[in-house]
Write a structure and sequence with these properties.
The protein has 344 residues and is of the alpha/beta class. It has one domain: TIM Barrel (Alpha-Beta Barrel), CATH 3.20.20. It is 40% helix and 13% strand. The protein has helices at 19-28, 43-57, 89-93, 97-117, 148-164, 195-202, 204-208, 235-245, 266-276, 288-297, 303-313, 329-340; strands spanning 6-10, 30-35, 64-66, 68-70, 73-74, 122-123, 168-174, 190-191, 214-217, 221-222, 251-256, 280-282. Strands 1-2-3-6-7-9-11-12 form an 8-stranded parallel barrel, surrounded by 6 helices. The longest helix is centred in the N-terminal third of the chain and has 21 residues, at 97-117.
Length: 344
């Protein structure tokens, strides 16, 4: 990894990079690029876009990210890519834990097969949030279940499916978004649950999977920990809970800094996130004026953060499966669909 890589991830506005975007990326050297539906047309175009990003910054191994969960959150979709089931579908299809895990693995392995072919090598999933009855529907069926043990088991299977296909998983939204009563895309949620309740439920899947390489923070205030700052900007949440109680020592990225849960200038948001202890800042909407502020407030990736990034990227391997046999997507789709079909 080049020594001048800056600790932020940017977006772009459309399906092709403009000259201004190329110049911005070349000058600021973002660690990675994240894609959204506005950037997706067809497989040939996506492959061209990911290649042009890497060419612009002069790093052929620079990561490209996407949110490809299935269900409501799927950036690559029909007609060029299949629709994938939402995370909740696997536990709903069968009560057998091993069968649930196999379905979660197959779905994410198939997603990885799609992504790696067009140059995308990081998928922002699995969602490890445990939805609470009072929680906002923004999580809903994006969760693998409403019980921490199920969420952890199926989240692990999904992560393993991605890794088997050469794609890195990003667990989100650490330390938990399931109790949030508002959508953090639109406003700042405040969770008032006691710390013990958070530990027993919300934090549990993240603690179980604390060995996974990358995590994304939650723009949520946890009043029992820090009543003043959302998790993304809170040193107490990041140091005491994410790094401490949960024990996550991997690469920690923010959720999108342009979400309305956060206020203040983009430079101030970015500075606060790094002061709290994140490793990477994420800015998604592709507006260069905002992204320039984020880039200017993001440090060169170095020290422990650089080590974490290198350790994560070292897990990107050629797509394979446990038997070292070529992956058969047709067979995998048949098994996935069969497993999701209701019993006669």
């Amino acid at each position: 990894m080049a020594s001048d890589v800056r600790a932020f991830i940017c977006g772009c506005l459309g399906p092709d990079l403009s000259q201004d975007e190329r110049d911005f990326m070349a000058a600021t050297q973002p660690w990675g690029l994240i894609l959204f539906r506005r950037n997706i047309v067809d497989p040939i175009q996506v492959a061209r876009l990911t290649d042009s990003f890497r060419t612009a910054i002069g790093r052929s191994d620079a990561p490209v990210l996407v949110d490809q969960e299935g269900g409501r959150v799927q950036r690559l979709t029909t007609p060029h890519w299949p629709k994938y089931p939402a995370a909740a579908a696997f536990a709903q299809a069968t009560s057998e834990p091993s069968a649930q895990a196999e379905l979660a693995f197959l779905a994410s392995r198939l997603m990885a097969h799609d992504l790696i072919k067009v140059g995308i090598d990081i998928d922002c999933m699995p969602v490890l949030d445990v939805p609470a009855p009072e929680g906002h529907g923004v999580i809903g069926d994006r969760a693998y279940g409403d019980e921490p043990r199920t969420v952890a088991a199926l989240g692990l299977a999904a992560a393993q499916g991605l890794l088997a296909g050469g794609v890195l998983p990003v667990v989100k939204h650490i330390p938990g978004h399931g109790r949030a009563t508002a959508d953090s895309h639109l406003e700042l949620p405040v969770v008032r649950a006691a710390l013990k309740d958070l530990e027993d439920t919300d934090f549990a899947p993240f603690r179980d999977l604390n060995h996974l390489p990358i995590a994304m923070t939650a723009h949520v205030v946890y009043a029992a920990i820090d009543a003043d700052q959302p998790g993304t900007l809170s040193k107490k949440v990041i140091q005491d809970i994410i790094r401490g109680y949960i024990g996550f020592d991997g690469l920690l990225m923010t959720d999108d800094l342009s979400m309305k849960a956060l206020t203040g200038s983009f430079a101030a948001r970015t500075q606060a996130a790094f002061a709290a202890g994140v490793d990477l800042a994420l800015h998604c909407n592709g507006l260069i004026a905002e992204a320039s502020e984020v880039a200017g407030a993001s440090p060169i990736l170095s020290g422990t953060s650089l080590e974490r990034a290198q350790n994560a990227l070292a897990l990107r391997k050629s797509p394979s499966n446990a038997q070292n046999v070529a992956f058969d997507p047709v067979d995998a789709w048949a098994r996935l669909q069969s497993g999701l079909e209701p019993a006669a």
